[in-house]
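Discussion board: Methods & Data

I've been asked by a reviewer to show the raw model output for two of the constructs in my manuscript, not just the figures. I'm not sure how much to include, so I'm pasting the format here to get opinions. Each protein appears as its amino acid sequence followed by a line of discrete structure tokens. Is this the kind of thing reviewers expect to see in a supplement, or should I convert it first? Here is construct A:
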Amino acid sequence: MKKKNVWLITAAICLVLGIAASLAGKVYRGRTEGIRSFDIATGDMNQSLTYDRANGVLYVGTHNGLLSAWRDGEELWQIRAEGAFRELALNESGDTLYAANESNRVCVFRTSDGEELLNLDLQRKAVGVAVNADGSRFAVITNTGSSKSNLFVFASDGTEISNIPYKGTLRGIEYCGDGETLMLSDKRGDISHIAEDGELLNQYSINYDAVQMKACAGTYWVVGKNGSYYRLDEELNCLRSGQISNTVNAIVNCIGVDAEGEYVVVGSKEGYLFVMDGQDKQIYTVDMEIQIMDTAADEGCIYLAGYGDAVWCIFAENLENIELYTLLGKLCGYLVYVFAAGFLVSLVAYIPRTRRASVKLLKNIWKQRMAYIMLLPTYVLLFLFSYRGIFTGLIRAFTDWSVNRNTVAKISFIGLDNFRTMLSEGYFLTGMINLLLLLISNIIKTLTVPLLLAWLLYSIRGGRRKYIHRFLFVLPMVVPGVVGALVWQKIYDPSIGLLNQVLGALGLESLQRVWLGDAHTAMGAVIFMGFPFVGAMALLVYYAGFNNIGNEVIESALIDGGTRRDIFWRIQLPLIRPQISLMITLTALGAMQEFNSIYILTGGGPGTATYVPALELYLNAAQFGRYGYASALGLVLLVFTMTVTIISNRLTREKE
């Protein structure tokens, strides 16, 4: 086989392996998510869950009074009530469903068809319900006000057995294995083992508000508001405890465990989900984007419900191997780069022209290897801190990358949708018009006052006087731009600002304005900021250009009868064209990227009067979390910036 064909086959193999590694990496990274949406959509705000493992039926209660039963993604039945279904419970046989409803009622349903068997008015908000194993008794806890609760115990036919007032706010209730005593949790953090008549048998304190309690395999799991959780037996011995790493300061809302009681999940009001393994090590944290309300256990998975119409499922198998999947995902990512490099090298070696050019380049690099080795650290740092971000932005500009889709498994390719959004929303087009006004005004300011002052400085006789004047003009450079913007914000203040005060002193009250709050004057105020427009950078560049003109040129012009005006327009100005072109380029680039002063003065307002694309990029990236759209804006600005730079450099070369 010819060597040329070997390179072609190698390139094909590297391409196939690279694609395979990319697909495998996506699969592994998807498994590290550990969670997926279940095939259930209630169309309402889910609030409570319970699961019948024997029959494979999931019962979902919602905030707006919908109760439904689901099996394999198919809805079996649904009923409507007036209030939110706060908690659901099943008897051991799974044929009866008990529901605590915030409309002051507890309801009992037949699970086969959803027929209502009992509807008891408690005259208090029902917040929890529990049923003993044989279904002969069920208990309900209610809350009235901020510190009053009641415990009701009923027979299976709805006959009231007891009504026990409770000092404090009850959070959770579960029946013990004997079918007669109960476990209660409250806002004080007390876990109480009591008899049906209210007699306290035992108590355990977690020292924090016990926000939820769940029964699992004869034990009781309790989570505190601080993120600590405990596993207690019926004698209230602590069998296991742990603490989530809550660096986001989320407000804990619920707890869940798998059927084996190994993995623990803790949900929060902000939507964060924390997953702990059997050794109470936090192995996974994810933002579910919606308040997590309740959980239900199954063999090998945990169901989650939040204030949305979906139900999620966390698979214990994925959690068990999440570290392995994470490692394999990273390994596949590295292999993609390796195979991509192999594909490019093989392709270059396959084409004779590129092979000869590459060999020549490698020989030159080897000849100058010490210089390249010394430059290598700089290029590595540039790639990590500059070019890597640029490449990421270029790629993510065509995706739906956002604060809610912030992992590779969640991010999707959407083509040119971000660029269509720029045109459809209108903010970008408005910003481009404002940017054009700023660009023209900034170029005019750069070509007038600094150029005139540089010529006047150059014309001053005496080096000492030149130095003093140059120092005074350049001194404002030490003042940060943010400070300057804040000073001008005070100048434009409608109440105490210098501008309105001067107009008032001159008797021109009719000209006083809310300069930054009026759409007709806001852009003019932004443009006028910095008056008298002595740009120190431009001043020094022009001054250096004038100094580079030889004295003999000026003397020759004077001998030929030239005036100072003729010398400036016909000799000096043409000779500093490179400096002028440079300042036009820098001014244009600065105008495209600058938004700090606008953000401080007006925030882009009023309305969109001072809105610019760079400000839109910042707001979408830093405040709105639309990273993909911000990357697309950055790509458009990059194209404009490079276009201006290339045109300016080409014009400069032609003039030179």
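Construct B, same format:
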Amino acid sequence: MKKKNHGKRVLLVSAKADVGFNIAPPLGLYQLSFFLNERGASCDIFDQELENAEEYIDKAKRGYYGAIGFSLSRISVTPESMRFSLDLIWRFRRAVEKSGFGAFFIAGGQEAALNYKQWLTLGIELIFLGFAEKPMLEFCRRLEKKNDWDGSSSERDSFLEGMHGITFINATGDITYNPSEQFREGEFKEMFYDQIMKIDVPYEKYWDIYRNKASKVNAGGSKFIVENVRLYTASHCPRRCGFCNSQNFLPYSSGQDKVPITILNADQVANLILRFHRRFGAQGVLFSDDDFPVGSREGLKRLWELCERIIHLKGNGDLPSDMQMACQARVADFLKRDHDGQRVPNRELLALMRRAGFGSTSLGVETFNDRVLKAPSINKLGVTVQDARNVLDAMIGEGIVPMINIILGVPEYQPDELSETLVITLEYILKDCDVSVLDYLMTLPGAPIYDTDLYKRHYQPWTHPDTGETVLFDEYFIPEHPMMQNLVNNQVRVVREILQRINEAQGWQNKLQNKRIVNISKLIAAAYLLERSDLVEQFTGVLNEVLGEAHAMPTLLDFGTGITRVT
């Protein structure tokens, strides 16, 4: 029996972040929605940070939507939020079933594209690969023309025939995988410059969340700016880190071994900064590319020229003189050869960046141990711990605050090697550096080490609401050393205990957690699980200094005792 496909609109559902301190508008989703609506498609956004699901589920019950799409990106969410996404998918599926109308359940993003085989068995019928703008537009135009739908897989096959950049289970039960098309000349600019120059994003609503809920403490070495925006200026990352899948999102989606990296030029990036300042009132910009300098001559030239453009815009009053920039980069980006052929920090570039307002730069250091740097899971070839220290010290000397990215649960770690990393991390925190800590090495589909059998894995279960079947999502790699196994298995629990005690002591139960406090708490927990009481005491002293800035009298908390140790 035919079902009338009443809805012609598409609903795009954002991922629900679960980090507690770093919420930001899902720019890619707003970009996709703008792209579709500007070309005549009908598209809504359900932004889970700002809205409640009930309104949209009610519309689904009334057959309002012809397709409901979910953004899935494991690298930016926790396993808890992945299970939340699954629960939400099935709430919407039940609503559509009750409506008597047909609707597609679709998904996109790195997790969906690189783990498509699993998601196509969990309630998602169609996955868009790579950047989804063009195939989604074609999908919407076909949906607009379709009036009846019997829900059969054969009819779905016919509906999707000839589309690029999609994957789905076909009528024979096999997976159809139609790679995305590569960028044509100028297409990246159209998507990430022309479109972004016109887009509207509810930044003020997100900034209000910070203003109303943020705990008032020192944000760290770098200046905290509420009115901050994120920009993306490169197609993908050039690096080959063992644990990361960002490098492979576009190559895998297009069926190619390698895809040329495309970047916006300095003038285009400067114009985006100016537009976001004038349109939204942005006082800070974070370039969220995995490696903003791109690690190439062209990328470094762009960075130099961009700094000159920003200095000029500030000099003539088009941008505030105190407007701050921040980016993500790699240690190797800031190394050059001196006259003797020795690798030294590029102080001229760092000085220019500081003049332009780059107050903070996030560096993928990952570990302060040379053996682990070259282990398969990290694979930071061509750089050493001394290189990292030289670049960090040069940044500090030029007035830039490094954000040091550290991974605790690297599977190759020995306890003394992680302790060594904690000692050096503490040294740089005391130099007023910021730190970002990953509790364990996530299993990211598409990463170079993901399909290897080098390491054991930890899994998180999810129970299917209709069948009762238990589905396992791999979450992180398990180290070989027993003490490191104990650390990764208990790190998150101990951190939660620490943060709960802080929130209770400070009266912050309904506040956003401060990023600096969260990350120092992670270091305390790691030191505790390594049985390094000396480091627990030292990191706790740093934490108490941060907490002391929130009140007239410091709150002295001792985390060396009272936390249940699980072995």
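Answer (T.O., handling editor elsewhere):
This is acceptable in a supplement if you add a one-line summary per construct. For B, something like: The longest strand covers residues 358-366.
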